[in-house]
């Protein structure tokens, strides 16, 4: 294996294993910043050794063992400087060396959930909570997080650095809260899981359009939350949304990895078990008797697609109405853009184009590639293919995902060909 191929493989392994690694280390050292540093140290060692020795049979266990040894060394080395280590060194059986194996080999799911609630502590700003958790649990780069938030990469980097320092200074406990504290921190946790799922569903960068493992991890965490916060409709709403969206994975890319858009997917291949689970979760949210929140409303939109046997049978008028309700609950330019698509499908592209044209002056969408992509699609439908080609080319220049860029450039080329007929 060449060094380049090895580094690609290691990067893929890191994206899968980093969250578990950091969560386990955080339980050991009680500091998410130090835990991430230790995990990064293990990654550096892997990058140095694996191109020569080959990838281990169990790379996750190798990384954990390497990081664990460095954690033990750190706890010993910092005995005088680290007051926490002084306390545990005087008799806490949790941190005595014979028990370190049991500390590190605990339930990974519990560790991940503890890590989410730790990084979503109210001592941090809302933006910092989400950015830090995506970094530590999603394994996303600052650039990928910046794309998800539509903000500058430097802004995200500063948020993450400050967040880790704040958590360390505040000595935030590594635990899942209970009672009122759980409710207070739930919205941040849901937002984190939602953005994690979205990053897996449509990757903002890289060579692959989807990252199924990231979606699976988000869905698993959502299911755990649903068992903890059974009376919270938005938890069930988010789980419903992720279940239904996950049902489409087999049909979202071609055998060679090319994106397949929703209207072109083979619905017979959608996972009916996941759809049934999603509809059941949505029903649980509705039965709690409270107005539907943003996640439950999005799940209701997804359910419209899931229950339509063919694309032509989709109830676009209902979807447009649901987007109208969503825009009242959480008004945003992105929701408005999606509403424009639904309206165009229900009532004609001219109506959707009017809404999209009004969004072109929205500052937060200036670098958002889906705005020119949607506008290009609507322009094609009204016969303005020359303008559509320009929009698809602009969208291609804005996306960080290679597969999506190829799709957009192909659509631009089709417009160019049609424009000269």
From TrEMBL:
One Pfam family it belongs to: Sigma70_r4_2
Coiled coil regions, renumbered to chain: none
Signal peptide: none
Domain RNA polymerase sigma factor 70 region 4 type residues, every copy: 116-167
The DUF6596 domain, residue ranges: 185-285
Domain annotation RNA polymerase sigma-70 region: ranges: 23-79
Protein name, per record: RNA polymerase sigma factor
Organism: Cohnella silvisoli
Lineage: Bacteria, Bacillati, Bacillota, Bacilli, Bacillales
């Amino acid at each position: 294996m060449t060094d380049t191929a090895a580094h690609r493989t290691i990067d893929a392994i890191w994206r899968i294993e980093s969250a578990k690694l950091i969560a386990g280390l955080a339980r050991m050292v009680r500091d998410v910043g130090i835990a991430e540093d230790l995990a990064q140290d293990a990654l550096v060692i892997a990058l140095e050794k694996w191109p020569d020795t080959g990838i281990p049979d169990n790379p996750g266990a190798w990384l954990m063992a390497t990081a664990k040894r460095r954690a033990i060394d750190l706890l010993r080395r910092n005995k005088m400087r680290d007051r926490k280590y002084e306390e545990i060194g005087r008799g806490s059986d949790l941190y005595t060396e014979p028990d370190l194996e049991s500390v590190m080999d605990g339930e990974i799911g519990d560790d991940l959930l503890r890590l989410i609630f730790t990084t979503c502590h109210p001592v941090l700003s809302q933006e910092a909570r989400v950015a830090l958790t995506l970094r530590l649990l999603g394994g996303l780069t600052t650039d990928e997080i910046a794309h998800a938030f539509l903000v500058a990469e430097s802004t995200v980097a500063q948020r993450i650095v400050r967040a880790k320092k704040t958590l360390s200074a505040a000595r935030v406990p590594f635990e899942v809260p209970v009672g009122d504290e759980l409710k207070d921190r739930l919205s941040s946790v849901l937002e984190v899981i939602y953005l994690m799922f979205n990053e897996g569903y449509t990757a903002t960068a890289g060579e692959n359009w989807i990252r199924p493992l990231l979606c699976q991890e988000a869905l698993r965490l959502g299911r755990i939350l649903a068992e903890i916060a059974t009376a919270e409709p938005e938890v069930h709403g988010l789980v419903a949304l992720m279940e239904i969206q996950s049902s489409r994975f087999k049909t979202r890319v071609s055998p060679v990895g090319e994106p397949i858009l929703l209207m072109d997917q083979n619905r017979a291949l959608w996972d009916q078990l996941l759809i049934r689970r999603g509809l059941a979760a949505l029903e649980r949210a509705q039965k709690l008797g409270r107005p539907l929140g943003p996640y439950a409303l999005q799940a209701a939109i997804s359910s419209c697609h899931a229950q339509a046997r063919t694309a032509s049978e989709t109830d676009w008028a209902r979807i447009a109405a649901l987007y109208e309700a969503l825009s009242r609950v959480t008004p945003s330019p992105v929701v408005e853009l999606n509403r424009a698509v639904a309206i165009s499908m229900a009532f004609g592209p001219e109506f959707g184009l009017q809404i999209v044209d009004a969004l072109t002056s929205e500052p937060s969408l200036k670098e958002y590639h889906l705005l020119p992509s949607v506008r290009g699609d609507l322009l094609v439908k009204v016969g303005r293919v020359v303008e559509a080609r320009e929009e698809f080319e602009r969208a291609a220049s804005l996306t960080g995902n290679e597969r999506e860029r190829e799709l957009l450039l192909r659509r631009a080329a089709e417009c160019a060909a049609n424009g000269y007929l």
